[in-house]
Amino acid sequence: MCMGVLENSPREAILAGSFSEVIENKRIIVCVGSGGVGKTTTAASFAIEAARRGKRALVLTIDPAKRLADSLGLEGLGHEVQIVAHERLEAIGKCVPGGSLAAMMLDQKQAFDEMVETYATDAQAVKRIFDNPLYQQIAGTLTGSQEYAALTKLQAFDKSGDYDLIVVDTPPTSHALDFLDAPKKLSDAIDSPAIEMFRKMQKGGSLSVVGKTGSYVFKMLAKFVGSQFIEDIALFFSEFNEILGGFKERAEEVLKLLHRDDVSFVIVTSPEEMAVSEALFFHTRLLETDMPFAGFAVNKVHASMPLDLSRDDLASQLGALSCVQALTLQETSLRMASESLLAAHSELERVAQSDRVAIERLQAAAPNSIRTEVPFFRKDVHHIESLSRLRGYLFG
Questions:
Q1: Cα of 133 vs its chain's centroid, Å
Q2: What separation in angstroms does the CA of 258 have from each of 159, 283, 292?
Q3: β-pair partners for 268
């Protein structure tokens, strides 16, 4: 996918250097990107760095995998905020006093329950909605619902004032745009003609209020699912009407939050062609919608390490190693081993060159923005001590 080079926005131009300045000057950092590029690791690194600098930091994840909990030394994460032991932070280096690190994993259903309790008129209405089987389905499958729930929780934390920096690890979606489009998708679903017909039918008390076409559709549906089920749906949307209105209002507030100057989007990617293409596509959307973009965090980068050795020279150096001498290999075996090593090195150099070309695409699209490169590690970064290895690459 060729995206071309876009003119950089003023917000983009004022940001330079590592992500150190972003940690200091922003209140909300949203890490976005396609799956498998290290969003969770990067988000955790941002929060850890902020806590070490004396900030009250929270990392909010929507990924149900245990990667974040394992990285922070927690047995598990749920919908309740958990505090990471200060000793864990001190174990990886000196911390500025006053800093703290908290983490939570969003429970989508519970987040929706909280919104229903906020917008419902009374406790009985809340109970009727919770007891309705249709609500269980909507809370889990409504278009953009997972991303929307994450954004509303983010807004609640922002309003609380309990944290100096909130880092969001976005949902593991197949396309990063799902997160950005979530508020509008939910609003469109709420205003859809289908839901409006159910509202009219319940309010009017008969099928005639939805017109001839609507009446025909409902009658045909009733043949398959039963008229009682149709009436239950209409009753549910009538009960849920005021809640949906609250959801739509909240979606509009969330969109405003994402445009604030103290919010920054960090696009996390790897040098793989598909991941870079998606990162560039998302970057284009951020610019088109005037979202505050900070920069690219590129993970799993292969470094170029040129090797000027012939097969015979390498075989000679191998033969001089005591561990190789202990194997008592013949010269033919040493030459074959050298050929295999040189072939493997050549392949790694090809990958490194491919990575460099991919990174140059990112640089061309946003020449004045932050771009960090984290090397490909042979071992997974899976605990807080290994996360500290990323510090120099992300924050200088």
A1: 30
A2: 14, 15, 8
A3: 297
β strands within 6-163, DSSP E: 28-32, 56-61, 82-83, 100-105
Global confidence as pTM? 0.80
Q: What is the pLDDT of residues 202-242, one digit of tens each?
A: 555 444 444 444 454 445 444 444 455 556 666 666 666 66
Report yes or no: 111 and 79 within 8 Å, Cβ to Cβ. Answer: yes
Beta-carbon count within 10 A of 260 CB: 14
Structure tokens at 260: 């604030």
Q: Which of 149, 147, 158 is nearest to 27 (CA)?
A: 158
For helices 177-190 and 145-160, the axis angle rounded to 10 degrees is 100
Residue 41's closest CA among 282, 386, 396, 355? 386
Q: Phi, psi (5° rounding) for residue 188?
A: -65, -40
Beta strands in 37-192 (DSSP E): 56-61, 82-83, 100-105, 165-169
Amino acid letter, residue 119: Y
Please, are residues 55 and 99 in contact by the beta-carbon 8 Å criterion? yes
**Dihedral over Cα of 337, 339, 342, 346: its sign:** negative
Q: Which backbone phi and psi does 72 adopt, to 5 degrees?
A: -95, 5
At 87-135, the pLDDT tens digits run: 888 877 788 999 999 999 888 778 878 878 887 778 888 888 888 777 7
**Residue 150: phi, psi to the nearest 5?**
-65, -40
Q: C-alpha 97: how far from its chain's center?
A: 29
354 alpha-carbon distance from chain centroid: 25
List C-alpha distances in Å: 245 to 149, 153, 161, 240.
15, 18, 26, 9
Rounded CA separation 267/28 (Å): 14
Distance between CA atoms of residues 53 and 55, nearest Å: 6
